[in-house]
Specification:
Shape: globular
Number of helices: 0
Distance between the termini: 15 Å
Radius of gyration: 16 Å
Helix content: under 10%
Number of strands: 7
Length: about 170
């Protein structure tokens, strides 16, 4: 999944990464993510939850104040990825707990970005792709606003183990 964050004016700098917090669970129906250190009013929070999939799985439900960006299953129906965002007015309490039905392995991360246009934080429509590959390729995206920060987020099922190496032009955050 590509997310394109942009700043409020075309002449300003691109949004900046502030911090991230992560969590893991095994055989769980929820995952609590801490709000990253340094989060302040007018920051943008992005939450990503990836989990195994089974026959009883349902969509991920976010706590109040979060807006769904996208969620869906991997092409081979072995994993599920859910993405949410929140513009910070008051820093939320930690942890923020995301829930679903069915005990699964899960991993999640919450990212804080600063300098994002808080009225319309996304430059272009969310681009998603599904597939089954050890070398996933995200769909191409063309930004329309200068100084756009592009996020690339993917989720993997049980067959994904160990480190995933991002392309040389990327900075890995989780």
């Amino acid at each position: 999944t590509w997310l394109n964050l942009f700043s409020s004016t075309p002449t300003s700098t691109a949004p900046t990464f502030v911090a991230a917090a992560t969590a893991l669970g095994n055989g769980v129906t929820s995952l609590g993510l801490s709000v990253p250190a340094g989060t302040a009013a007018d920051d943008l929070l992005i939450a990503a939850i990836t989990r195994d999939l089974d026959g009883t799985s349902t969509s991920v439900t976010a706590p109040g104040g979060w807006t769904l960006l996208d969620q869906g299953n991997c092409a081979t129906a072995v994993c599920h990825l859910a993405l949410f965002y929140q513009v910070v007015t008051t820093v939320p309490s930690s942890p923020q707990t995301f829930t679903w039905t069915g005990n699964q392995r899960a991993a999640g991360a919450m990212f804080t970005f600063r300098g994002v246009d808080i009225t319309t934080p996304f430059d272009v429509t969310l681009a998603t792709a599904t597939g089954a590959s050890t070398n996933p390729v995200a769909p191409s995206v063309t930004t329309v606003t200068p100084n756009t920060l592009i996020l690339r987020i993917f989720g993997g099922g049980p067959s994904v183990s160990g480190a995933v190496s991002p392309p040389a032009s990327h900075t890995e955050r989780w």
